[in-house]
Design brief:
By secondary structure, the protein is an alpha/beta fold. It is globular.
Length: 152
C-alpha cells in the first residue's frame, strides 16, 4: 500500500521528534508471537528508551482511517494517536476520545504538539520482551532494505 504525502510528513515529524540519544525507534513493527491472536498486528511506530519505557504511536491522517475497523495498537507503557489538525478537529467534534491514550497533532510547523497526555500502562515482563523482540525483527527488515539499496 502506498503512503500518502500526509502520512509521510507525519512519520517524518514523529521521527524528528523522537530521534534523540538513548531513544530507539522503528516504524511498522509487527508484533511477535503470542501477543495477538492472529500474529499480524502492526504498530505504526514504537520507541524504546534507555529507561525501559515503551511508547506506541498510531498515525491517522484521515478521519475515515481513524474510524475504520483497522486495529489501533495500544501495547506500550504510553500510547499515542498522532494526527493532522483536520483529523483532530473531527475527533473533538464527534467526541471520539479514547481513554488513557495521548494525542499529538502535527501542525504547520512540522512538529508534533501534545494536546492530550496519555496515562501510563504497566507492561508485564513477557509483554516487554515480546515488544523488544518484535522491534529487533522489524529493525532488521529495515536494515536489509537499506543494504539492498547500498551495500557496504
Amino acid at each position: 500500500m502506498t503512503k500518502t504525502l500526509d502520512t509521510k510528513n507525519v512519520e517524518h515529524a514523529l521521527w524528528r521528534f523522537t530521534h534523540k540519544l538513548g531513544v530507539y525507534g522503528c516504524f511498522e513493527v509487527t508484533l511477535g508471537l503470542g501477543m495477538t491472536r492472529d500474529h499480524k498486528e502492526i504498530v505504526d511506530y514504537i520507541t524504546y528508551d534507555k529507561t525501559g519505557v515503551v511508547r506506541c504511536y498510531e498515525i491517522k491522517t484521515s478521519y475515515a482511517d481513524f474510524k475504520s475497523s483497522a486495529r489501533k495498537s495500544w501495547w506500550g507503557n504510553f500510547n499515542y494517536l498522532v494526527v493532522t489538525p483536520e483529523v483532530y478537529s473531527k475527533i473533538e467534534a464527534n467526541r471520539d476520545i479514547i481513554g488513557g491514550i495521548g494525542i499529538y497533532v502535527v501542525g504547520k510547523n512540522g512538529l508534533p504538539e501534545s494536546v492530550r497526555r496519555g496515562s501510563r500502562h504497566q507492561l508485564t515482563v513477557g509483554e516487554r520482551v515480546s515488544i523488544i523482540e518484535s522491534m529487533v525483527r522489524s529493525m532488521d527488515r529495515e536494515e536489509q532494505k537499506l543494504y539492498r539499496i547500498k551495500p557496504y
